Write a sequence for this structure.
């Protein structure tokens, strides 16, 4: 039944790739603990190594630079709390797993503002970097989950390094959507999540340099070279590896989604000149559109789209049932009522242009219906 | 899966490392598959049916886990595995209460992740008492009682030991803890779904559960947190506020469903399985012990989970035995970072000298172990030990 739906919420979770399912199903049937020394264990270890290489290649690092985690959140928490930094700098548009962790860490932290397009200001960053005296970590996402806006990460990292500040990059939303080269980004840590690139949920990775300081968040059996304890989620990791390989191969094709997205946005603007496309002036992921429908709340839009079989969202998919204004849009200076009239459309490897057309039809129908209603009530 | 026909036509190698991990039950895999394919939604997506059906599946799974251990569903928190559960219980509680109650009591034979978490809290200023065990591997209840002071925050004692299979007296310890107003955590990764374990009867406030030790998937576990204990945590993972803020991160519905299904199956089958495993245990021990001198069962003989058979073979070395037992997948110690080959600290804690500890093998049997495999394994072990002693 759900497959008949138009799924345009790929930043919440991407549709799992069939080759991922196949690899996982095979492995799930095989079994084996990668830390056991017998044959089943050794075979499992081989699979683990293969997957580690695939994930490493997605971001241009060596396999030894990959520490598997239970997901992007764990990778972010690990980088923020286990680098030894005594101070944190985060941007205002980071994911909750960064912002909340900064808040909970007990460390002093600075929040970098963003401009109206959602980008951090490098001059502000520079001033902030100059003011810190203690060992500090800058955490800046590569691409935003709600708007798709890409941060000037390499430039920010270069500034940070000039001040001997460690750099963590949350690349959970950017990976598999745009090319990433860890080395040229200049970060010390980078977070990845499998389920955002067509892999399974419950797996992620923290990428780091040999020199990046790290004490483990989860201690115990000494897996992942002592950097993350716990029996490896091997089927999940293997699925992650396959998804990494597929999405690396599919990067050129993924880039073409921007044409579909841009066409949607120009049709929206043609239909509704008063609609806002958030972050559209900044470099963005090819797949994300965050747009407002003037006069119609997010909730009404979501209900209407759901009835039309279209899955989109009003922002981040986090703790369930929470309805609140987006901290990302707020940081971009978006005010009510516009901030409460937003939906996020996020395309993926599985998306067809027909699906996006379908969404546009539903969007314009609702928009025109509500305009008519407000015109008639005004009259 | 290695299902072996009854005629004794055995597929090698025979998997006898059920404490390291268990094969995924096909029924669990079948329950998981829809959530890896068409029902792929993010359970925290609240605006469409993909999210809702994923969330429903997660909650149904939570109910099954709760049912197996006699808890309420809202007392079950999903984690990435028992290691995380143990870290979360000890560090999460420790960091919240260390100023008022800076003392933790645990046991020398606990899993590394419990000991390491306690050690981490020690580095953060808490004091830690690590209790020894008897030569049978059992913790002395009197020693637990004596170790508790007015400053004690937490007692952490595992339910079933991963290396020697002994069952610790949880309810007695739980009663003491309750009486003294101390939180009681138990790492039950090797126990849940294998021995009867009810959170109320055991008197635990916190209990760690693993998926892949009970024929479920790797990468998922749970922490039981007794609601009425009103404990507060510093979460290990902060962020999106999932799991009522105690554990952030997108839940993996396929994983949660897998753990739930594994629990539901265990609930139905563990009693019969326990009887069968006890029979296989006795048969194996008698078959090997009857033909060889100098064989010692490690851990209490009766107060144990019978899926664990840890034997010392006097005058041999386990690593050499392992290399001549190619047909058996067995282990000489806990399957963690196995690269570091040092004598088991658990065996040392029950008083084995280094040579004896290094002469020990753990045979782990479980749901898919057959009579024919036990016979084959016993013969292979006897031959390997006899050969080793000749050389």
């Amino acid at each position: 039944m759900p497959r008949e739906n138009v799924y345009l919420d790929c930043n919440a979770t991407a549709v799992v790739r069939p080759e991922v399912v196949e690899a996982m199903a095979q492995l799930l049937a095989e079994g084996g603990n990668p830390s056991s020394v017998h044959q089943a264990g050794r075979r499992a270890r081989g699979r683990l190594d293969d997957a580690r290489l695939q994930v490493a290649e997605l971001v241009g690092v060596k396999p030894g630079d990959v520490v598997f985690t239970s997901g992007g959140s764990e990778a972010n928490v690990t980088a923020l709390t286990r680098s030894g930094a005594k101070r944190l700098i985060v941007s205002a548009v980071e994911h909750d797993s960064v912002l909340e962790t900064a808040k909970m860490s007990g460390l002093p932290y600075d929040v970098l503002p963003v401009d109206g397009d959602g980008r951090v200001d490098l001059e502000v960053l520079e001033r902030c970097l100059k003011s810190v005296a203690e060992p500090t970590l800058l955490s800046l996402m590569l691409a935003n989950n709600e708007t798709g806006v890409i941060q000037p990460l390499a430039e920010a990292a270069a500034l940070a390094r000039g001040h001997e500040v460690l750099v963590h990059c949350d690349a959970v939303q950017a990976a598999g959507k745009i090319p990433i080269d860890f080395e040229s980004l200049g970060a010390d840590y980078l977070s990845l999540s499998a389920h955002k690139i067509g892999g399974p949920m419950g797996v992620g990775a923290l990428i780091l340099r040999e020199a990046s300081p790290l004490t483990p968040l989860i201690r115990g059996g000494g897996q992942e070279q002592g950097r993350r304890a716990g029996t490896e989620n091997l089927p999940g990791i293997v699925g992650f590896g396959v998804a990494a390989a597929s999405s690396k191969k599919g990067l050129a094709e993924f880039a073409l989604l921007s044409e579909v997205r841009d066409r949607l946005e120009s049709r929206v603007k043609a239909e509704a000149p008063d609609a806002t496309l958030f972050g559209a002036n900044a470099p963005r992921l090819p797949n994300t559109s965050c747009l407002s429908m003037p006069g119609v709340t997010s909730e009404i839009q979501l209900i209407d789209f759901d009835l039309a079989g279209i899955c989109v969202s009003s922002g981040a998919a986090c703790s369930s049932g929470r309805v609140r204004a987006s901290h990302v849009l707020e940081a971009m200076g978006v005010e009510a009522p516009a901030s409460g009239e937003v939906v996020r459309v996020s395309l993926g490897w599985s998306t067809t242009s027909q699906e996006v057309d379908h969404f546009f039809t539903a969007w314009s129908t609702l928009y025109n219906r509500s305009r008519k209603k407000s015109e008639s009530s005004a009259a | 899966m290695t299902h072996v026909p009854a005629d004794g036509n055995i597929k090698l190698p025979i998997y006898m490392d059920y404490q390291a991990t268990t094969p995924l039950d096909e029924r669990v895999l079948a329950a998981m598959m829809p959530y890896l394919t068409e029902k792929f939604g993010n359970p925290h997506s609240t605006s469409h049916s993909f999210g809702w059906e994923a969330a429903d599946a997660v909650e149904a799974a939570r109910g099954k886990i709760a049912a197996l251990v006699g808890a309420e569903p809202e007392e079950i928190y999903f984690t990435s595995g028992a290691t995380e559960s143990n870290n979360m219980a000890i560090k999460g509680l420790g960091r919240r209460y260390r100023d008022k109650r800076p003392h933790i009591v645990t046991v020398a034979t606990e899993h590394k992740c419990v000991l390491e978490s306690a050690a981490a809290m020690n580095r953060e200023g808490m004091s830690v008492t690590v209790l020894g065990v008897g030569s049978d591997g059992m913790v002395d209840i009197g020693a637990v009682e004596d170790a508790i002071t007015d400053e004690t925050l937490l007692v952490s004692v595992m339910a079933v030991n991963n290396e020697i299979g002994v069952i610790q007296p949880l309810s007695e310890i739980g009663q003491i803890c309750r009486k003294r107003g101390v939180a009681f955590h138990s790492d039950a990764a090797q126990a849940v779904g294998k021995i009867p374990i009810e959170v109320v009867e055991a008197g635990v406030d916190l209990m760690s559960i693993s998926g892949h030790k009970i024929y479920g998937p790797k990468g998922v576990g749970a922490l039981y947190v007794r609601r009425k204990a009103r404990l507060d945590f510093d979460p290990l993972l902060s962020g999106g506020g999932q799991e009522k803020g105690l554990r952030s991160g997108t839940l993996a519905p396929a994983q949660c469903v897998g753990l739930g299904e594994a629990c539901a199956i265990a609930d139905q089958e563990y009693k019969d399985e326990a009887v069968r495993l006890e029979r296989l245990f006795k048969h194996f021990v008698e078959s090997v012990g009857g033909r060889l001198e100098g064989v010692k069962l490690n851990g209490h003989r009766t107060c144990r989970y019978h899926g664990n058979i840890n034997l010392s073979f006097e005058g041999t070395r386990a690593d050499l035995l392992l290399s001549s037992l190619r047909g058996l997948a067995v282990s000489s110690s806990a399957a963690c970072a196995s690269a570091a080959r040092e004598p088991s600290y658990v065996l040392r804690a029950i008083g084995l000298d280094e040579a004896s500890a290094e002469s020990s093998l753990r045979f782990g049997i479980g749901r898919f172990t057959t009579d024919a495999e036990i016979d084959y394994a016993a013969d292979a072990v006897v031959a390997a030990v006899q050969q080793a002693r000749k050389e």
Chain A has 13 helices and eleven strands.
